[in-house]
Each structure stands twice: as C-alpha cells, then as structure tokens.
Amino acid sequence: MLELDLTLAILHHVFIFALFGVLVAELVVVRRGIDAAVVKRVAPIDAWYGVLAALILIVGFSRAIFAAKGWAYYAHNAFFWAKLGTFAVIGLLSIQPTLAFLRWRRTGASPPDEAVARTRRFLWMEVVLFPLLLAFAAAMARGYGMF
C-alpha cells in the first residue's frame, strides 16, 4: 500500500506542476499581435492542458480511494472539497481559451487584439486561482478542515 500511495502522490504532483507549466506556456505564447503560425502552435499546447487535467482527476481520485488515507479521510475534509471546487472553477475558466484557440485556428488568421486580451484575462484568472489548490492541498494533508 505504501508504494502505491507514494507512486500516486508523485504522479499527482508531477501532473499538477505540468498543468501549471502548460498554463504559463499559454500565457507566454498568447500575446497581442500573434500570427496564424503561433495560433497553430497553441492549440496542441492546450490539448495537453486537457490531458493533464484528466490525469490529475484520475490519479487524484485513485489516491483518495486506494491510497493510505482512504476515501473516509477525504470525504470528510472541507479543504478537499474546496480544492475540488477550485479545480472545477479553473476547469470552467479554461473553456473560453480552448474555444478561442480552436476558433482562431479554424479561421487561419491572426486573432483581433481584443480577443487575445479577453483570452489572456481568463488565463490570468486560472493562474490567480492556482495557488489556492496548493494551499488547500497543504491544509488537507495536515488534517485541517475535518468535519
């Protein structure tokens, strides 16, 4: 059980940091004046965002169910639910950039600066919320929030 717990914890953390890296990469690439070539590159980057988010959920719930602390620990922890809620909000915020990237790629033209600015606002909202995930995870791991 301990090896499974450690393996799942490592995978969970690697996937979370990778997701944050993808988010930062999108922020770096998506700027005013981007051209069609850059738009073509951002859509595959964003696809990794979706893959990593799914892996985080799969590994995270596997940890909660099969690893050392068990589901009873997580199910009765407010910070677990706050972390899941924050992850869900970040996921919902990521829909607008994904749709924008797909739309821009389909048109094959440079997106207008207003559309880029709007998309960057959504990316920044995701970045701003991300530290809450880490704070909630740290609190949860230390037993805070039990009800």
Give me some keywords for this one.
147 residues; 6 helices
Q: What is the topology?
A:
Elements: H1 2-29, H2 36-66, H3 70-75, H4 78-93, H5 95-107, H6 113-141
Helix pairs in contact: 1-2, 1-6, 2-5, 4-6
Describe what you observe in this structure.
The chain is mainly alpha-helical. The chain has one domain (2-141). It has six helices and no strands. The chain has helices at 2-29, 36-66, 70-75, 78-93, 95-107, 113-141. Helix 1 (2-29) packs antiparallel against helix 2 and helix 2 runs antiparallel to helix 5. The longest helix has 31 residues, at 36-66.
Order of helices and strands: HHHHHH
Total of domains:
1
Strand content: under 5%
Specify the helix fraction band: over 70%
Q: Taking all residues together, what is the mean pLDDT?
A: 95
**Terminal CA distance:** 26 Å
**H/I helix tally:** 6
Spans of 5+ residues with little confidence (pLDDT < 50)?
none
Shape: elongated
Radius of gyration: 17 Å
What oligomeric state best describes the polypeptide chains here?
Answer: single chain
